[in-house]
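note to self: the first set is below, dont mix up w the second
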Amino acid sequence: MNKSIIVGTVCLFLIIAFSSSNGIVYHGEPESAITRSNEHQMSLADSYTPHAPISITSNADFVSQGWPGNGISGDPYVIEGLNITADAVCISIRDTTVYFEVRDCVISSVDASLYNGIVLDNVTQGTVRNCIIDLHISGIFLLDTSNCTLTNNTASNNDYNGFYLYDSDNCTLTNNSAYSNQDGFYLYDSDNCILTHDTASSNRNSGFYLYFSDRGTLVNNTASSNEDSGFYLHYSYNCTLTTNTATSNSDSGFYLRHSYNCTLTTNTATSNSDSGFYLTYSDSCTLTTNTATSNSWSGFSLSSFNNGTLTHNTASLNSERGFYLDESNNSTFTNNTATNNLDYGFYLSSSNNSTLTHNTATSNSHDGFLINYSNNSTLTHNTATSNSFKGFWLSNSDRGTFTNNTATNNLDYGFYLSSSNNSTFTHNTATSNLGYGFCLSSSKYNTLYLNRLGNNSISNALDIGESNVWDDGISSGNYWLDYNGTGVYPIPGSAGSVDNYPFAVDITAPTVDSPSDVEYVKGESGNSITWNASDDHPERYTIYLDDTPVSSGAWNSSSESITISVDGLSLGTHNYTLVVTDVGGNFVTDTVLVTVLEATTTTTTTTTTTTTTTTPETGDTMLILILSGAGIAVVAIVIIVFLKKRGV
């Protein structure tokens, strides 16, 4: 037997041995060889097939033109892997109801086309995925279409819009990109659409523009460097915008006009050339935990914005105001923060019946809070600290109510009233301001008592108004750090006002015990918490459940216990926090944890032993193949050596 026969025999033997591995898919196999669940092949990005424009005008055209698939949810008709470059509508699908998918296509034109790139007209259940469209009027145009999906597409350098939906409802756009178009995403009269993780940048108008499009949901989208607003909603009601980002746009980051009942949550507007958030003629909108930073105008600018609610928003480092409310009535601001803005922290102009609670204005370049030509305002538990001018300025505004506000370390007055009448100030604190603690100028019929004033540089108070009252007329005046404890306290100024019932400043906080934490099984009753608090001048208490007030009232005596039932809570751990405050504004808190457990049940478990046969994993199979190959090679070598010894 010659050597060639020996080698051939060994090779044949090896081929036969390894032929058993032909059912294994290796990790390094090209993506184009892996079939999708609908059994159509995925085209490689660099293997587009040139194709003429496509026109489909009925369900039957998918079959007659030979497009694969069955038109059902799990097996749509598929148009994929094509390069259509034409001054025409490159893919037009109209008047269909079957499921179809256009994917992995390039749509372009040699020069700027006068037609749209991909058009879906009066269709349902269509999907466009992983397509690139440029140099057309609009990249993808949906007309009278519903329940369609656009995913991972890129539209750029189109003359009009990157993505244009006209009268197309219930559509979903995800992970699409639009740049260098007129508008990135334009929805006209298209309701109930969802846009998530889409990006619009460097477009000539807005990044996202919704016009007469109600109940839209925009989540995690980004608009940057567009020549108009990042997000623009016009006559679009009941929309929800969550966790979107608008950066470096040439107008406002978020602009809502004539758009009612919209909700904006956890959005960010940074370095835009106008306001971060600008809402006008948009009533009953809610803004929560949004952030506006380093914008060229105001952080939040609200005009003709009635019945609006702002909660836990932050405005910082903006070139004008942190929060600006103009000609807007019945608005509520709670737990918002304005810091390091180059003008006012909070500025209300010609806005009546506003309520501001637990807001903070710090280190702004003008006043912390300016209430200007705004009547019937209520400010409670707000703080103005280290602002370059006044802490609180009430200008030409009547019938305001100021309670438990604090102005400290401001570079001008703590509280300043100019031409403002019939307002009430109680339990406020003005300390360590560089001007006056309270200054009343050309203001009359205001009432001030139980306020704390001390360490203000010029004087704790100045009254150059008329007929202002500095006590309650019964037994309580204000707390003065410089009161010597004897007689009345004369208020400096031409008004000749007197505090008839002054107090020395009470700087002693109440005390309260710390009841044990509570634990009970869901459904049990009779569970409660009882606190015992003490102070020489008690006033009131508030109990919070998980940061929400659930009980409050007068605290009249240290002998009064404060009790609350904790029955009926949901499973889990809850926080009950008591805050007790004395007439001097001093307070103390205590928190009790209440844990509600699930009732335990007794169950009987039957254990069944099952014998199973385990098929080796892919790694085990590969190891077996390697060992088998090595064994076969050894056998082949032995055969060769044996034959050589025999002289074959």
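second set (the one i keep forgetting abt)
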Amino acid sequence: MAGQQVTFLSYLGGAGLTFTLLLATLYLWRKRQFHPSMIVAAMCSLVWHLVVAANFQSALLGNQQLNKPLLLMVEILRYGGWVTALLYCLKFTTGQHRRDASAMLFPGCG
């Protein structure tokens, strides 16, 4: 019983830290230092932490067992969000986003 409570509190603490990460990415996005996909990835992680914490809490109270399809879905969403964000950030930091935008505006040039 106490071990499951520690698990619940750990995921809840992770949600708090992820919320802080979300606020930091929002701030850096406003300063144009991050791609908006980082915000989406941080939101996906926040949702994942909250869903896992809620599932552990409901299992702890004996209301239901862990909802495995829901956990799998949010896990895939979280990983997909972070992979997409990292790929966009690599593209953003190398300056390729500027070349792509200019190619869309002026096809055949460059």
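remember for set 2: Residues 2-30 form the longest helix (29 residues).
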